[in-house]
Design goal:
The chain is of the alpha/beta class and 241 residues long. It has six helices and nine strands; from the N terminus they run E-H-E-H-E-H-E-H-E-H-E-E-E-H-E. The chain has one domain: NAD(P)-binding Rossmann-like Domain (Rossmann fold), CATH 3.40.50.720.
């Protein structure tokens, strides 16, 4: 176990997209990072990029873990504490999306969406809360504007993100009594690989993954007396319809 004076962050779903953008931002700001993902191959590929940035002060580790499995989350926490000695920051970012009319949505699609986006955030918090209490840490969830705005074909995704937003706000009220900050970040359109998409030049108007990383860094720097508990984020200049 390495005893480190730097803060240590766990990011679920950190191999690409928003999670990867947050990992890059934290590393650049002197914070050790542990990313998790469901597939060892993508975890390894992300680590090559994250640890190739030339920052000798901090580094990233990667762990194959599934947020839908509580034991998997506890094992990831054990490995992080073994490597760094602590966990100060947790970003529950892992998410999936299945979209379509509610009468065509399959049971497996519903279950995967709720178990990943909502139950996974609870398992992540449950597995890390002792570390967060001990270190007066910060717990983030990455929700969505879909967590307050419903839309057609979004029944499972809306349900998971409405639930995640409510879960995070209730957790904030519980955990601030222990010196833990809790925030949910709710992005609108983000240029990522979410739902099988590939970002392109046509997505330049959208929020970029590094923008969410910058928000996390700014929140971490905020004075301890102040807590922005729910942050909605939108593209400033979406294309005209």
């Amino acid at each position: 176990m390495q005893k480190t004076h730097s803060k240590v962050a766990l990011i679920t779903g950190g191999t690409k997209g928003i999670g990867f953008g947050i990992a890059e931002a934290l590393l650049k700001n002197g914070i050790h990072v542990a990313i998790t993902g469901r597939h060892q191959k993508t975890v390894r590929e992300a680590l090559v990029q994250l640890n190739g940035g030339g920052n000798d002060a901090t580094y990233a580790i990667g762990i194959e873990a599934d947020v839908r499995n509580y034991e998997s989350q506890k094992e990831a926490v054990r490995q992080i504490v073994e490597e760094f000695g602590k966990i100060d920051i947790v970003i529950a970012n892992a998410g999936v999306g299945h979209f379509g009319p509610v009468h065509e949505l399959t049971v497996s699609q519903w279950n995967e969406t709720i178990e990943t986006n909502l139950t996974g955030a609870f398992f992540t918090l449950k597995a890390t809360v002792d570390e967060l209490i001990k270190n007066k840490g910060y717990y983030f969830t990455i929700s969505s504007l879909a967590g307050t705005n419903f839309f057609a074909n979004g029944s499972a995704y809306n349900a998971s993100k409405f639930g995640l937003t409510g879960f995070t706000q209730a957790a904030m009220l519980d955990l601030r009594q222990h010196g833990i900050k809790v925030s949910t970040i709710m992005p609108g359109s983000v240029a990522t690989h979410f739902n099988g998409r590939t970002p392109s030049d046509e997505d330049s108007w959208k929020i970029q993954q590094e923008d969410i990383g910058e928000i996390v860094v700014d929140l971490l720097k905020m004075h301890p007396r102040t807590l922005p508990s729910k942050i909605e984020v939108r593209p400033s200049m979406p294309p005209s319809k």
